[in-house]
Design brief:
Elements lengths: L8 H8 L2 E2 L8 E5 L5 E7 L6 E7 L7
Antiparallel strand pairs: 1-2, 2-3, 3-4
Amino acid sequence: DGVRTGMFFAEISRKHGAKMIADSTLEGEFELSGANGTVIGGFVKGSGDKARVVSLYSGTNCFFR
């Protein structure tokens, strides 16, 4: 889908509908729907227009919360 680390979150939010997960216990967690309907998640560092994607994940994951 063209989403990659280093991108500004504002860009993937605008182009791909990415949303921050408001009730996440992990700082900077977001998700978006991929082109094939799968959920792509990730984490950003920073805030506002300066927030950048630092990691991505998809499928089943387990994060220590």
